[in-house]
Amino acid sequence: MKTLKNNIQILLIITTLFIWQNIFAKTRNISVQQDPKIDHLLAEKRKNNASITINDKFKIQIFFGTIEESKKNLTAFKKEFKYMDGTIVFSNPSYKVWVGSFKSKIEAEKALLSIKKKYPSANIINPNKK
Questions:
Q1: pTM for this entry
Q2: 21-49, pLDDT tens digit by residue?
Q3: Contacts for 63 with CB less than 8 Å, ≥ 6 apart
Q4: Taking a C-beta distance cutoff of 8 angstroms, is the pair 63, 118 a contact?
Q5: DSSP H or E segment with residue 80
Q6: 81 with 113: CB under 8 angstroms?
């Protein structure tokens, strides 16, 4: 009986120590040292992202797939359609290539006629409509 009482007391002491350790471990202050260049890079990234706007205009999606294929398609598109801008947009799990910025659907449809000759799966999208 005495050994059972001693075992229970030892178990109680060990449990109490673990609980105290967890309580104090969570209240410690952690200091992180980071390179000041990280703040500069984050500011640049925010500036770049701010320039990529999605507005009420229509766009044409010419491709979706991997990042490598998207880059190839965008480069090929820009060589053939020099007057039209384009961008790659990430949409989990693939990347989409959007081109143009049209005020009306009629303008987008006119451009789509010439784009479909090279990219048959191209279609008109409105990025803000979900």
A1: 0.56
A2: 766 665 667 778 888 888 888 877 777 66
A3: 69, 70, 73, 74, 96, 97, 119, 121
A4: no
A5: helix 67-80
A6: no
